[in-house]
Design a protein that fits this description.
Rossmann fold; Alpha-Beta Plaits; 6-stranded mixed sheet; binds adenosine-5'-triphosphate
Length: 296
């Protein structure tokens, strides 16, 4: 299947700061694609480039199989920063302003208000809206004229848990209707809960990308000790299914393929004449893995 967007070797510097360094990945059609990274990793810069708001220094991208940019733009709804809605105007009238500015359908306003759950409050003034409602209205504006793709930069920033949950539901609902969603976030939790695919950025470099259930798997670690640590290390390195062996001051921390348990390790060592003086399983959270990956 053709990717929704193919990004190839995009680089961008601001003076001495390399905001993006040769970043390449494809966004599959029908995915909720998370661009994940800590503050300053280049997420906003990347979205601004693919939305043609900012020029890259090098590299290229092509939307929807390389159709002309104008045609592509009509199929992309985008929310890079909160639009300047008028406080004294209703949601319905504010959408008229958005529609006029973007040359999008006035007649589509009731449909998008329904999608973002604001039909009942459509005539209320914008200033009476909660932060979550304001954000949903902004997403509504991006949905005018039924785009095929929705691009969102940190859509839950500043929202309370309720507001975050509403946006999450909305994203999942829109995706079910066939819209591909590209979402930048520094929140691992957000990406894990809504995204099917992820690209992780760190200081402008792409660390990894792929389906969430392949990239963001939490790995358990088994910690072991024995009297002869050198013999122990050499021995476990020979064991099938052991992926990684890390030495700490006093222990060995090993990461294994799925299915290898502490009992297997114990048995393997015993069979080779090593009695373990310590054996424990340390559940590694995704949070820890993300922190390690991004060196936070
Ligand atoms: P955040 O979550 O904080 O918005 P981000 O991942 O979106 O971060 P960017 O905003 O793209 O990251 O910034 C990437 C790097 O480029 C950072 O070091 C940032 O300070 C720098 N940067 C971004 N915009 C500019 C600019 N206009 N001038 C100079 N440096 C900039």
């Amino acid at each position: 299947m053709q990717p929704i967007i193919s990004i190839q070797n995009i680089s961008k510097s601001y003076g001495p700061i390399k905001a993006l360094n040769n970043v390449s990945f494809d966004v599959p059609e029908g995915s909720v694609f998370g661009v994940l990274g800590p503050n300053g990793s280049g997420k906003t810069t990347l979205l601004a480039i693919i939305m043609d708001v900012l020029q890259s220094d090098g590299g290229s991208y092509s939307w929807l199989g390389g159709i002309p940019p104008d045609a592509a733009r009509r199929q992309i709804g985008c929310l890079l920063e909160t639009p300047n809605f008028y406080h004294y105007m209703s949601a319905y009238d504010n959408l008229a302003v958005s529609a006029a500015l973007k040359r999008k359908g006035m007649d589509d306003r009731l449909r998008v208000l329904e999608i973002v759950g604001l039909t009942e409050r459509k005539d209320s003034k914008f200033q009476s809206y909660s932060l979550g409602m304001k954000q949903r209205l902004a997403i509504g504006a991006a949905l005018l004229d039924s785009p095929k793709v929705l691009v969102l930069d940190e859509p839950t920033n500043g929202l309370d848990p309720n507001g975050i949950a509403e946006i999450r539901e909305l994203i999942l609902d829109l995706n079910k209707q066939g819209i591909t969603i590209i979402i930048a976030s520094h929140l691992l939790d957000e990406i894990e809960k809504v995204c099917t695919h992820v690209a992780i950025l760190k200081r402008g470099n792409l660390l990894l990308n792929g389906p969430v259930n392949e990239v963001l798997i939490s790995e358990d670690q088994i910690e072991i000790m024995a009297t002869d640590m050198i013999l122990l290390e050499n021995t476990v390195r020979e064991m099938q299914g052991v992926k990684k062996v890390n030495k700490t001051e006093q222990t060995l921390q090993i990461t294994c393929n799925e299915g290898i348990t502490t009992a297997h390790i114990n048995e393997f060592c015993l069979n080779r004449g090593i009695v373990l003086s310590h054996l424990s399983l340390r559940k590694k959270s995704l949070e820890t893995k993300f922190m390690e990956l991004t060196n936070q």
